[in-house]
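Record 1 of the preview.
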Amino acid sequence: MSDSIDNLVYGPKQPGIIIKEIKWEVNEGDLVKQSQCLCHLKYDQPETSNTLLAMVIQAPVYASKSIKIKAPITGKVKKIAPPEEIQANKVVCILEPCRHDTVFSGLCVYCGFQIEE
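->
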């Protein structure tokens, strides 16, 4: 894959999680700012503090969690992974960095970056 690692947005890093729901706040082609929320993700994570309960019921115990996945860079949403492909520590979204194509008064009109003249 030729995309820079900085342009790849990953799901939660924790092993053993089960993705329950994802709600996207953006669409492919949208312009996003660095730290903007891309999506809300709900998942179940294995609960390590309830090992006794897990032994008694002979099944893993999960805790429900929710996180926001934010854009690491300013740019355009190039690709969003289909819901069935979203997993822990896998790419959920690819961003294309802003190229600062249109500049007015020394600022990129898309992202606001100050361009040196």
